[in-house]
Amino acid sequence: SAVAPDAKNLRVKLVLLGDSGVGKSCIVLRFVRGQFDPTSKVTVGASFLSQTIALQDSTTVKFEIWDTAGQERYAALAPLYYRGAAVAVVVYDITSVDSFTKAQYWVKELQKHGSPDIVLALVGNKADLQENREVSVQDGLEYAEKNGMFFIETSAKTADNINQLFEEIAKRLP
Ligand code: GTP
Ligand code: MG
């Protein structure tokens, strides 16, 4: 077989956090199955999926994805999922300033209680809904830069930037 001599196979625990309804489960469904579900149901507890990607240098990265439930009643469970995670993806909805405020809460919690070397990504989802935008690109970018996070806007509906999100995370792994 033609496995490159410098090929590496990485396994990465990744957790998604953010308010209920921002599109965490849809982002995962788009990334893992290439599908979008307009009638996506709220997540109960958390769900687990995995997906492997290949990078240009023939490194493969297997993402073990914990998609958490955003509803307030599940907030106390979050540490079970972000503890030991190498990557945390904090998601808000660009049409909801409240969800951006909630994202900042999760970033602070991860800075306090996550792994010290955790890779943090800030995602503004539902970028297809430009006409309803409440959070500017500038506000998302500035907050992310201040907190040493990677920032991207995505749409699980159109698939815009979904693969890029995971590829950029893979590039930033220690
Ligand atoms: P919880 O499981 O309760 O934490 O919510 P969630 O963040 O997993 O939200 P979910 O992925 O279930 O999506 C909530 C709603 O937003 C669904 O009706 C989706 O169809 C819709 N949605 C998700 N992503 C997008 C997007 O990129 N664009 C648009 N227009 N709608 C989206
Ligand atoms: Mg969900």
Helix proportion: 25-40%
Largest sheet composition: 6 strands, mixed
What are the low-pLDDT stretches, counting only 5+ consecutive residues below 50? Answer: none
Number of strands: 6
- Alpha-beta classification: alpha/beta
Total number of helices: 5
Q: Which percent range describes the beta-strand content? A: 25-35%
Q: How large is the radius of gyration?
A: 16 Å
Principal-axis shape: globular
Instruction: Describe the strand arrangement of the main beta sheet, using strand numbers.
Output: 2-3-1-4-5-6
Separation, N- and C-terminal Cα atoms: 28 Å
The set of bound ligands, ions and cofactors reads: guanosine-5'-triphosphate, magnesium ion
Average pLDDT, rounded to a whole number, is 95
| Helix/strand order, N-terminal first | EHEEHEHEHEH
